[in-house]
Amino acid sequence: METLTPVKARVFKFGNKQADGNGTMRNLLGGKGANLAEMSAIGIPVPPGFTITTEVCTEYNDLGKETVVGYLKDEVTEAVREIEMQMGTKWGDTNNPLLLSVRSGARVSMPGMMDTVLNLGLNDEAVIGLAKKTGNERFAWDSYRRFIQMYAGVVMGMKPESKDDVDPFEEVIDNLKEKRHIELDTQFTVQDLQDLVFDFKDIINKRTGRQFPTDPWEQLWGAVTAVFDSWNGARALYYRKIHGYPADWGTAVNVQAMVFGNMGNDSATGVCFTRDAGSGENVFNGEYLINAQGEDVVAGVRTPQQITKLGSQRWAELAQVSEADRKKEYPSLEEIMPEMYQELDGYQKTLEAHYRDMQDMEFTIQKGKLWILQTRNGKRTGAAMVKIAVDLMKEGVISETEALMRMEPNKLDELLHPVFDTKTINQEDIIAQGLPASPGAATGQVVFFADEAGKYKNTILARIETSPEDLEGINIAKGILTARGGMTSHAAVVARGLGKCCVSGAGAVKIDYKNRKFEVDGRVFQEGDWISLNGSTGNIIDGKVPTKEPELSGEFGEIMALADKYRKMQVRTNADTPKDSKVARTFGAEGIGLTRTEHMFFEGDRIVAMREMILASTEKGRKKALTKLLPMQRGDFEAIFEAMEGLPVTIRLLDPPLHEFIPHQLAAQKEVADQLHISVAAVTSKVAELHEFNPMMGHRGCRLGNTYPEITEMQATAIIEAALNLKKRGVKARPEIMVPLVGTVSEFLEQKRIIQETAEQVFAKRKDRIDYSIGTMIEIPRAALIADKIAAHADFFSFGTNDLTQMTYGYSRDDAGKFLGIYQNKGLLTSDPFEILDQEGVGQLVTMGAERGRATKPNLKVGICGEHGGEPNSVAFCHRNKLNYVSCSPFRVPIARVAAAQAAIAEEQA
Ligand code: PEP
Ligand code: MG
């Protein structure tokens, strides 16, 4: 029997201190819906409403509009009746109309990525009723014209697609302003607004061939289904892709009674944060606008005022506004609506305590009544993430493990990069001052359009204001500059979430899109000019500014110490130079997991000797050239051992195919011939001889050391001599010699024999010894398969997951870039396997290699030194496979430390 009545609840109501759902139901109700339910239940005044679940979004995508509306009808009708009762208004009533808002809300916040429609329920009759009821005709007509504009854009497909499209509604507005010689929307008369409504409806009819819907139910279903559609819109798809959110999460739809911040000067709307989202400082802060709707604050059209007096004073100092002007023109909410402020301050404290994290809230004051529209855990910079977690821990709100689990490890990267050396900035180079919306130091060439953010290598995207369509460009640009908008503008919020430097609300910057330039007090900057942004001070600076190492805050050190307390794996670094080794050590590296010796051969004279070795046609000739390389290698190793004093240092023998060291252009080959006093023909014929069709699977790795044993002998000599030299100076070196690209036991054994014999010769000559070990990389699938046999002879394993991925997938590391992006866009791969370890496939070889190796030698030391060693998901995988250490580039060492701690905590809690 066919049933049309739903068996499961699709609609969850909230309001009047009650709720059907609760805060734990994020997956079903979306983040916003779950929080609205939770807020209502704990007594926060939220406008009553209901949430249509994320499951309905999936049903909608599978079954289509008609079926789903059929499923929803009864539940939604009942929920609307409930709102009517609570608000004392009536849906569809012309004298006392209830107006509704419809908003998206996925389980994670995706600011601005999906659609919203406000003021639903208005039509030609209801607008008159609303005007009468509120005694504010202007407000009623302004709401109506906003509604038509928004609804037509979102539901009827009339949103401009790109910067070149003219927004037909804005065009009408601009024409009317011109005709009436006015500049601001607020200067429109009631008659003007009525004319706009008439013209808007006319345009809609002409463009779409449809009448603007007057039936509130038709409006409501149109808006609900448009929100579902926006889940698969271009903006949301891109956002999901960069964050890796799956399509089947779906979005919920939140339908709520409208409350109005634009009902006059006793009304206001704003956004606030319980702590500073940029620095993490524990100060309540935010922005508001009197007589405005919420979108006005985030869209950055009017520069908003500060909520607290302290914030307002700080803002005035930056904006160079006198205290008298500040009080008169830009007073804080605390000063002009003290009672409302007190109430809001109470709620922000309640909400932060309830959610035990920094909250980002939206509120509206409608004729002296405060409503909280939403709350969510606020997006924050890396610095704020660390400080807030440490502070909350010290305040006793969260535990040590919670503080650690709150880290998004990759965000720590923001703290480690250079900052401007402000001492080197000349006062006259400071072009203008904006708001320090998102910290960081960005230098780049100016572009004015988001879709041109990739035009130069480093760009600064300068906009009057940004909108959600600009996300991709914001992500690409090095820094964002906006002329309008405050600390909570779209640009500021998105930039902070991405850890991108942003200076907002720089009012002195006059942007001219048409001529691709901006001007500040007569100084003109064209597209392509270099400027710098200091996101921590709000300075906009002419030209490039030198940078210096960041000073890591106390909280950073505290989080790192906690990570070290909980993690079980060690964290090493991949470093080829003493400088990298030192940097990594300051970031907490506990040794080197990979020194790629080949990189040392490219510098200065070394490349000449290296080429001499490669071009030599006899063993004697090669040995002669290697004698020149020996002292250079020894010197490098000494310096690295010294930087890593007392810590293990894994040095890998020469790995890449030799053709990489010889130039491929004829002119450069001639130079090589001249330098080595040989014929050009000798060089070109060697190049031809070295040519391989598959160099990645060719004559490289231990295959080199086994065909030219003298290379291994030279490298082993350099390593052992360097360690002995240091021993003499009282510095402890702990060399681990690593053989690359092993696929059979015999080729490892042959290399081991050469290394051991060489070492014994050096020891005999020097009449001294040191301890060292010999291990291998596991980076060829065959090595993982026979790991039990290799382990019988190896002191350690290190998974080279770069090559292991290459050979397991059969994707060339050097060529896969051509199709990996396309594969990801088409959904054929969820991520780049060279970036995030493929746990399902390549991971099996890691698991097997470690297990089989340890079956032979239970205490075998096992690590990883492929790029995955610093990627948080892959680090967690290594923890689960009980690896002894991960090794990664110096700047990822702190990320790996935290990721390793999180993996250990997750295991404890499972
Ligand atoms: C690897 O293959 O993972 C590795 C670390 O070595 P390389 O990247 O130098 O080939
Ligand atoms: Mg490799």
Instruction: Give the overall pLDDT as a whole number.
Output: 92
Q: How much beta, percentage-wise?
A: 15-25%
Q: Could you describe the largest sheet, including whether it forms a barrel?
A: 8 strands, mixed
> Which hetero ligands occur in this complex?
phosphoenolpyruvate, magnesium ion
Task: Describe this structure in a few short sentences.
The active site is at 490 (tele-phosphohistidine intermediate), 865 (proton donor). This protein is an alpha/beta fold and 910 residues long. The protein has an 8-stranded mixed sheet.
Note down, in words, how this protein is organized:
This protein is α/β, with parallel strands linked by helices and 910 residues long. The protein has five domains: 11-123 and 214-257, ATP-grasp fold, A domain (Dna Ligase, domain 1), CATH 3.30.1490; 148-212, no CATH class; 268-380, 2-Layer Sandwich (D-amino Acid Aminotransferase, Chain A, domain 1); 417-548, Glucose Oxidase, domain 1, CATH 3.50.30; 567-657 and 692-909, Alpha-Beta Barrel (TIM Barrel), CATH 3.20.20. It is 45% helix and 17% strand. It is built from 35 helices and 32 strands. An eight-stranded mixed beta sheet has the order 13-23-22-15-16-17-18-14. An eight-stranded parallel barrel has the order 25-26-27-28-29-30-31-32, surrounded by six helices. Strands 2-1-3-6-4-5 form a six-stranded antiparallel beta sheet, with helices on both faces. A hairpin with a 2-residue loop joins strand 20 and strand 21 (523-526). Helix 4 runs antiparallel to helix 5, helix 6 (168-180) packs antiparallel against helix 7 and helix 27 packs across helix 28 (745-766). The longest helix is centred in the C-terminal third of the chain and has 25 residues, at 619-643. The protein is elongated. The protein starts with 10 loop residues before the first strand and ends with a helix. Bound molecules: phosphoenolpyruvate and magnesium ion. Magnesium ion (MG) binds next to helix 31.
